[in-house]
């Protein structure tokens, strides 16, 4: 399924977000992380013991997505995995632009039930041409309008010119904080986890055409469609710098990557050669990713003389 940029624009720049299944046990993590969201924020929760806490946050709660009285651009799903197909069905019927499934426990667990449920979600989404982000991920970050990665730093609301695409939610959050301390800030980011419908080439292609993003960083544990990934990488790298940190570089790392997001890995030599031929830059750590992106930003920024001319 090829990504629809109109739907991705709505997801990355939402005017209405609904959070499904947030709980007191997690300190209402997703509702709190969107406390600075500048547009409409709703909750969907049916557990009576949770609704009082949601209302205390000043968020309107509904018992179903379909009851929310306006179009929804982004749904954040934090329900048990067995409930995930039912929520996806509601998203499809509501004609939601995209849904980020924080819910985990699918193919990355290597269990029969997890694999079955992931296959079901994939089939449902592809049949409906629905833009599912994840599952098993931290989703979308757009600091300019308060769309958060569940952890908000003191720099919330500061938007830079960097795009980040990460299979790992932990690395996405860490990059956000570490890069800010070193003077560069995210414009848009996505943690896409298992990537069962939208995968890294979809986000890379989308960020490649975004004029606000000057440099793209990626953390990948593997790619599912290598031919398509390299094609998109070559096209985007011709327009703006792309810096890639590849996880799972050792045999132990490959096993860890597979258990984390169910990714398939390739040998390091093949990967580095392919990335270099596409015009992108390979790095080997978070520190190198940040340093290289910082250098790319300095290289692509106008000089003081150019700025004076403009």
Features:
310 residues; alpha/beta; 6-stranded mixed β-sheet; 12 strands; 41% helix; disordered C terminus
Task: Explain how this protein is built.
This protein is of the alpha/beta class and 310 residues long. The protein is 41% helix and 17% strand. It has helices at 5-12, 29-33, 48-56, 84-94, 112-128, 169-181, 200-208, 226-237, 251-261, 268-277, 286-300, 304-309, and strands at residues 16-20, 40-44, 60-62, 74-77, 98-101, 131-133, 139-141, 162-166, 186-191, 215-220, 242-246, 281-283. It has a 6-stranded parallel beta sheet with strand order 3-2-1-4-5-6, with helices on both faces. The chain has a 6-stranded mixed beta sheet with strand order 7-9-8-10-11-12, with helices on both faces. Strand 2 (40-44), helix 3 and strand 3 form a beta-alpha-beta unit. Helix 7 (200-208) runs parallel beside helix 8. The longest helix is centred in the middle third of the chain and has 17 residues, at 112-128. The relative contact order is 0.11.
């Amino acid at each position: 399924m090829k990504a629809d940029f109109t739907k991705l624009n709505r997801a990355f720049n939402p005017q209405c977000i609904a959070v499904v299944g947030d709980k007191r046990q997690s300190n209402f993590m997703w509702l709190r992380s969107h406390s600075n969201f500048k547009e409409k924020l709703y909750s969907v929760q049916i557990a009576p013991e949770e609704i009082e806490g949601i209302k205390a946050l000043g968020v309107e709660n509904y018992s179903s997505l379909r009851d929310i009285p306006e179009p929804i651009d982004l749904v954040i799903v934090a329900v048990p995995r067995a409930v995930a197909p039912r929520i996806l069905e509601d998203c499809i019927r509501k004609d939601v632009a995209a849904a980020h499934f924080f819910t985990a426990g699918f193919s990355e667990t290597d269990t029969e039930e997890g694999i079955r449920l992931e296959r079901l979600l994939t089939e449902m989404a592809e049949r409906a041409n629905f833009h599912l982000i994840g599952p098993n991920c931290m989703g979308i970050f757009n600091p300019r309008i308060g769309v958060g990665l569940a952890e908000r730093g003191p720099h919330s609301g500061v938007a830079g010119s960097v795009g980040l695409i990460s299979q790992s939610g932990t690395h996405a959050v860490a990059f956000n904080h570490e890069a800010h301390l070193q003077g560069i800030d995210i414009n848009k980011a996505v943690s896409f986890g298992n990537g069962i419908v939208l995968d890294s080439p979809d986000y890379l292609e989308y960020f490649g055409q975004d004029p606000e993003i000057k440099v793209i960083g990626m953390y990948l544990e593997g790619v599912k469609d290598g031919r398509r990934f390299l094609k998109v990488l070559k096209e985007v790298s011709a327009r703006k710098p792309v810096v890639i940190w590849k996880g799972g570089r050792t045999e132990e790392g490959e096993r860890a990557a597979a258990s984390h997001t169910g990714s398939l890995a390739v040998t390091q030599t093949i990967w580095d050669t392919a990335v270099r031929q596409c015009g992108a830059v390979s790095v080997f750590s978070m520190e190198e990713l940040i340093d290289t992106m910082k250098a790319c930003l300095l290289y692509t920024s106008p000089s003081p003389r150019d700025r004076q001319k403009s």
